[in-house]
Specification:
With 749 residues, the protein is of the alpha+beta class. Helices cover 63% and strands 7% of the residues. The protein is elongated, with a radius of gyration of 31 Å.
Amino acid sequence: MATFLYKLGRLAFRRRRIVALLWAALLVVVIGAASTAGDPPDDEFALPGTESQQAFDLMEERSPGDAAADGAQGRFVFKAPDGEKITDPENRAAVEKVLGELSPEKHSQVVGVPNPFEAKSISEDATTAIANGVYEVPGPELTDETRGQIEDAVELGRDAGLTVEVGGDVLFVEPEMGNGEIIGIGVAALVLILTFGSLVAAGLPLITALIGVMIGVTGIAALGSTLGLSATTNTLAMMIGLAVGIDYALFIASRYRAELMEGRDREEAIGRAVGTAGSAVVFAGLTVVIALAGLAVVNVPILTKMGLAAAATVVIAVLVAITLVPAALGMVGKRIFGRKVRKANPETGVPPMPSEDAKPSLGARWAGFTLRRPLVVLLTAVIGLGAVAIPVGSMTLGLPDDGNSPTSTTQRRAYDLVAEGFGPGFNGPLMVVVDLDEVVEKGGDADRTVRDIGDSLRDLEGVAVVGEPEMMNEEKNAAVVPVIPETRPSSVETEDLVREIRGMSGQIEEQYGAVVLVSGFTASLIDFSQVMDDALVPYLTLVVGLAFVLLLMVFRSVLVPLKAALGFLLSVLAALGAVVAVFQWGWAAGLLGVDQTGPIMSMMPIFMIGVIFGLAMDYEVFLVTRMREAYVHGERPGQAVVTGFKLGARVVTAAAVIMISVFAGFIGAGDSMIKMMGFGLAIAILFDAFVVRMAIVPAVLALLGDKAWWLPKWLDRILPNVDVEGERLQQHLTATKTAPDPAPEHARV
């Protein structure tokens, strides 16, 4: 591996203009393809194998093309002024005037908005009314004209003195990302300048990373309509691609500078940098790809697509790092060092290597302290992370609804008005889908069967209202019974009610011959959480198992990969604890712009395990390969730890700060899910890089000594030697230098 990458790095250096032109051409082609591609599809929230999905499929089968199933839903909530009732003649007239502006006669995309006075959707105190509108197309496909008409109609009601708010997705807008990611890139640029002392050297990782991300993101857009990749698929790809792209370029550029300082010419220096640091980049990238592609195990299509798209972006980042970065380093020449350094060394433009008597770096001093007090450092780090992880014990999983939206949005205000006027359960009605096929085949009374089932549901504790059943078709072989819980959609009580209704299905089938399925948005969220729970252990086993084998090959050690995996579990548990403390308990929620606390997003544990495991192994590979390299070249275990920190700690620190900055930039997003993801990833990198990799790793290696690098002989024989530390590369270079010159052409036999 190292020898191949050494040759590739030198080739990219020599043909740097061709390499740069090829990448530029690829970017232009992908942008062109994206500009001519069709619109990306909408997100399809499918949950194969779950009861809620079975119910949706049954509804589609028995009532195909039903706009209520596929189209946007608009919940128009009207509240009368204080002291008045919505049924008062003036207020009723105002409501009906608004509904007239929302009718199919006014714009083509609406199916209908029922009159709440006829549908009897008036609160008991007669102060609030709900009109549930149905549209022909999903929310993202509504035209600006339709949204404008909705907003104009709402203003008519407000001008008449009513409080009018709109829930559902008819006013759907893409979540604002804010300017946080720009600030994150700015912080990354500042860190790179401080690390390299050169604007050119600082700009190089940023530019190459942005090129890689642009190719990845525009590639997803170009293939969106073909592969069914929605617009939200880009979010994870952008976050991960930008972070790893900067880090990978940073590691190769740093190694290149170190090789130059050891007196090697530029082509040889870039070859060695790509051969050694590039090998670490390749295997670190592989761990990230494994973790992201492994999301397919969860069997949720949208997660699978997000994971594969992000994995493809990481592959592009690796290819950019081992080809475009060496080409760019060849173009910048001596400017890889700052002007001050070049002036001090006019002949070479390269500073000399620090002498043995030079003051040890901060990383080397920290490593020395850890070697002297390994047990103290280890216990302090483990106890600290354990304390932060305590909130995980009370973590409640769910998915955000309008109740978690900022209070400034009309969706949130509509949610609160409904909860106040009708009860919290009206924000998450359950759809009990009844399959009456067998009843109809046997000549039974379908209407009476559905009414009897409704009466059975009405007797359950926790049910506020059972609505009028609605047959799906003329054959009357399927019906929907609306059930309104007494509690809010994301509560434990509502989840218990769903499980109780599902538990009655066997009894109902035996008694009536009908099959009952519970669906609806609330039931889908409950099923989604269950899918996440069921997939957690298989996913963790797959990802950690494959990465363990990969690290086994990289480090030629059993204990180092084991320590890496256990350290990762500590950091991800601590990060989840911090997420619970902020987003569920509300600690420091105001500082992060969290308007509403609630359950933690169901996919968060699996999402963080996948992403953080891959990124954590990046730091493990970059830092520990330096130690392994020193150990293989004859240094004692303790000295190898110091050498690894002396050569790699500053760069790993800079890389971690950059990644934290990029992820933290997404905390400023308006969408609560993206905000939670950004915070979780940023805090996890903080814990993993600075506590696990910088404290626990050297402490454990110090306690283990030579045993840290132990590998059974039988395992050593069967494992392929990937040579990340460049041992075979060194042998190759030595053999090349000592080989005799080939005989002249005329002297050959």
